[in-house]
Amino acid sequence: MMMDLSKLIGAMAITFTCSQAIAISCGTNFKPIENKATVMTDESGQFRLWKKEDQKSLTYCISNKFRELKPVIEKAMRIATQDWMNHGNIKFIYVPDADESCDARKGPETLFRIELNRSRRYRYAGRAFFPYDERNTITFKKKFVEGNFDSLLRLTRHELGHVLGLRHEHIREENPYRDRCMESDTFSGVTQYDPASVMHYARCGGTGTTELSEGDKLGLSLLYPFPN
Ligand SMILES: [Zn+2]
Model's pTM, two decimal places? Predict the structure, then answer.
């Protein structure tokens, strides 16, 4: 079904950030709609996104420390990466041959790595990074990998959203519960505020939806447009 784009934009939200150190192609082929989406920016408002030469080779390895949980995280990554790839001109590539060295101190052979934290005290369910951060790891807390698979899928989609440059949706000014969940304000709206975004914490006024929202999909397609 074809959707009226203006209605779709009105129905969604994504938030971005661009870093000053990384004057990326953010913004060169995308004109932000003022106050309408959520992407990472630097202080000058440049979007922090993967450059053209990298966006089609987002390679990753998965630590063997997942042990018996490895098939679970492999499946979650396979589904969640495909979801985002369906809506933007990006490509995630799993490199199983690099798993052996995924925990190596000198760094993985891939662009980023997936690791497990088994500590019950680890304070994050998942923790990711933004494009070109020094940190290039997504960390999952064990409890969430062995728990409900739909919740793990939502978490995986969320962390991959950060990897693609997306900020938390709940930091938008339009969120009436924003005060509960304040963060740095180096971001720019790309689509309209969207409580259904996977980038929105449920406890900060979000719907807690597991799937990518229409806003998430539109946002990604605006940030990483497919060639015409
Ligand atoms: Zn997050």
Answer: 0.82
